[in-house]
Amino acid sequence: MAKELNEGTKITLDLKTIGILLFTISVVIGMWFTLQGDIEEAKTLPEPPIDRIEYDLKDELIRQTIMDTQEDVEEIKETIDKIDQRLYELQKER
Predict the structure, then answer these.
(1) CB under 8 Å to 1, separation ≥6 — which residues?
(2) What is the DSSP string of the chain?
(3) Cβ atoms of residues 72 and 64 within 8 Å
(4) pLDDT for 1-57, tens place per residue?
(5) Is 0.85 topped by the overall pTM?
(6) Calculated CA dihedral for residues 58, 64, 69, 74, nearest 10 degrees
(7) pLDDT value of position 1
(8) What is d(CA 19, CA 25) in angstroms, rounded to the nearest whole number?
(9) Predicted local confidence at residue 5, as pLDDT
């Protein structure tokens, strides 16, 4: 039951190959419509609320970042003071 498409080409399509091809195409189309339906459903759902734990963790992270930055600034100030003192001593020696 195999047929040739063109007499120049040797591609044959039997009933089994056509069935597999149609099944694959139908699966892909079904997945596409399922995905589109899920996207539309997700658009209508309310946004999930932020849990108190998540809020507390974010707040703690922000506070810790601020404290780390403050410590870095204090270290930079100390370094600048040392550099300033050395410059003063070098200027004094001249």
Answers:
(1) 14, 15
(2) --EES-SS---EE-HHHHHHHHHHHHHHHHHHHHHHHHHHHHHHSPPPPPPHHHHHHHHHHHHHHHHHHHHHHHHHHHHHHHHHHHHHHHHHH-
(3) no
(4) 455 555 566 667 789 989 999 999 999 999 999 999 999 999 998 887 778 898 899
(5) no
(6) 160
(7) 47
(8) 10
(9) 55
Beta bridge partners of 12: 4
What number is the average pLDDT over the span 72-92? 94
7 residue type, one letter: E
Token pair recorded at residue 52? 């108190």
Residues 6 or more apart whose CB falls under 8 angstroms from that of 9 comprise: none
* CA distances in angstroms from 72 to 41, 75, 80, listed in the order given: 48, 5, 12
